[in-house]
Each structure stands twice: as structure tokens, then as C-alpha cells.
Design goal:
216 residues
């Protein structure tokens, strides 16, 4: 896929932001491991983060998708409902992107898959993401953090606070794991637009998120 210069810049900023969040998570995860020793991670996930609430679109979010279409990532067994006019931008083995009409004011659905080792501690990682997001919320970086179950998968949902500069990106994100075709996979689902345009796209972004269908 050949991107225009603005698209390349947009994607680069998103990936840098995600990389920084992974660095924060890694530090948090290692601290958690050093404090907990060899204890099991499963019980701590439910006791620390609580049960996940169901991800359900409200009436306004459903209405924002009216007349839309299916965005299908067939090779990964995933799909979403997107509003009218959205177009596919990328469809690779581990990355997928659709984008709304517009240029700098457009919104994007960006999904990436990360293959994991069979022994990867899924529960501990979800807990680490949740704890890291809570810390970021205390620092004012996020204004929404919760555990949300979408299509049978529990994950961490978080939303960035309104950026200082209106043209900077603002992301709604959901991170989870699944076992697919015998492989443990991390799922990173981002819905993003500029800060100044977030409110205009907000219902559609949440509607897309909660329309997620995942084979697992």
C-alpha cells in the first residue's frame, strides 16, 4: 500500500505512541514480576482489575453506523461495522486499517496482531496493561480506563485525554488476547483521529469498537 505524506506522518505518530505505551507496560510488567515472584497470575487479574463489563453500543453509537458496511479482515477472522464512506487502507497478515472520508480531520480503525509464545502469560499481561493504564490516568494522560469484554474476549479499554494541541492524535484503544489456529495472539485495536475532531467522530468510534467480531 502506498501512503501519501500526511498518511505516513499519521501512521508514524500512532506507532510511536503505541511503542511508548509498550515501554511503559514493559517496565510495569517487570516490576510486577519482581514483586510477585513465581505466584500464579490468573487470580490477581480478577481481584485487581475486577470483572469486565460488556462492550455494548448505545443508541447514538449504533445510529452513527447506520447505512454502513462490513470491514472484513478475513485472514484473521475479524470484522467490524464502519460508517458509510469508510475505505480500506491496509490489509496485511498482521495489520489492518480502514479510514473515514477526509484528510487531516479523518478517523481511522487500526488493528494489529502480535503472535506470542504458547506459554505467554495472558492474564498477567492484561493485568499489567490495566495497571499501566490506571497509572497513566492518574498522570492525566488517559480519561477512561476499564476492563471490557467484546465478543467473548476480556480486554483493557482506554481513551487518551484531549491533547494539548488540537491537531495531535487522540486514541480510543482496546487490547486483548486470543488463541487462533493454535497460536496465542495479542490484539491491539485503535480508533484514532485528531483531538479537535474526536467529539465529532466519537459515536462512530465507539460503535465500531463494540461491533467487533473475533474468531477465537
Amino acid at each position: 500500500m502506498t501512503y501519501t505524506a500526511p498518511m505516513k506522518h499519521f501512521m508514524a505518530v500512532l506507532l510511536i505512541g503505541f511503542a511508548l505505551s509498550l515501554c511503559n507496560l514493559s517496565e510495569k510488567f517487570h516490576k510486577g514480576n519482581s514483586n510477585s515472584g513465581s505466584s500464579s497470575s490468573g487470580s490477581s487479574s480478577s481481584s485487581s482489575s475486577g470483572s469486565a463489563e460488556p462492550g455494548r453500543a448505545n443508541a447514538e453509537q449504533i445510529a452513527a453506523l447506520a447505512g454502513g458496511q462490513q470491514a472484513k479482515w478475513e485472514r484473521q477472522g475479524m470484522s467490524w461495522t464502519v460508517p458509510p464512506g469508510w475505505k480500506e487502507q491496509e490489509n496485511e497478515s498482521k495489520s489492518f486499517m480502514w479510514r473515514s472520508p477526509g484528510s487531516g480531520d479523518a478517523a481511522s480503525l487500526i488493528v494489529s496482531i502480535s503472535p506470542m509464545d504458547e506459554s505467554f502469560p495472558v492474564d498477567a499481561s492484561i493485568q499489567a496493561y490495566f495497571d499501566s493504564a490506571k497509572s497513566r490516568a492518574k498522570n492525566g494522560e488517559l480519561d477512561e480506563v476499564k476492563m471490557v469484554e467484546i465478543d467473548g474476549l476480556k480486554g483493557v479499554q482506554f481513551r487518551e485525554a484531549n491533547p494539548e494541541h488540537p491537531d495531535d492524535n487522540r486514541r480510543l484503544q482496546w487490547i486483548s488476547y486470543r488463541k487462533y489456529l493454535g497460536q496465542v495472539q495479542g490484539i491491539n485495536l485503535m480508533l484514532a483521529t485528531d483531538g479537535k475532531d474526536f467529539e465529532r467522530h466519537k459515536n462512530a468510534l465507539y460503535g465500531i469498537l463494540y461491533s467487533t467480531k473475533i474468531t477465537h
